[in-house]
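Suppose a colleague, Dr. K., hands you the sequence of a protein chain of 225 amino acids and asks what its three-dimensional shape might be. Before reaching for any lab equipment, you can write down a predicted structure in token form. Begin with the sequence itself:
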Amino acid sequence: MKTISLPLILSVNGGYVDTAGFLALQGLFPAHVTGNFVTLSANLATGTTGAIPKLIALPMFCLMVFLARLAGLALTRRRKPVVKPLLSVQLVLLSAAAWLALASGPFLEGNAPVAVVMGMLLVSAMAIQNAIHRAHLGKAPPSTLMTGTTTQIMLDLAELTMRGSAENSAAAYARVRTMIVAVAAFAIGCAAAAFLYINVSIWCFLLPPVLIVAALASRTPALEA
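The predicted structure, expressed as tokens, is then:
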């Protein structure tokens, strides 16, 4: 039986975690960390809670990407797989965030220490996912941010509309087909997070670890990269 590809699972997870984090942690984006500049500015302008985790999200994200790359390079030098160990670390981080959510949520005060810790666990997990994608899944569309992917889809559709060379059209069609699936997977993750947060509140954070378990069980060759 054909399994769902690793990039698609990660795209669902990317949309899911970003939406769940935004809803549960007073507007924090765990994956789209530069988006926190906007919500941080809104917090400062309106006096609402949640500025602290948004302020430290980018430095935490950068640190975790740096550490993930160092770990990946060390494993590569030893001729060991990289993706599977990094996904395992992401699983631990998402599981810790889920435990903290159930133990201490809902989080009405975004600057509370427990909310900040949970937010940084999610940011760290998504930083590792981004590092995995850029270093080892570069041929797949991004799994956590769809602006660039959507832009490329429209560029390729324009190419197909103008009916350029057969070679360019074939390449554009292949990209559009792959990227539309990635955007759809991301959107499904966003919708699922919103639905579950509305219906089961903080319990929605149990799903991301399950998605990473599914990623580890996906039997894709990328897991051995």
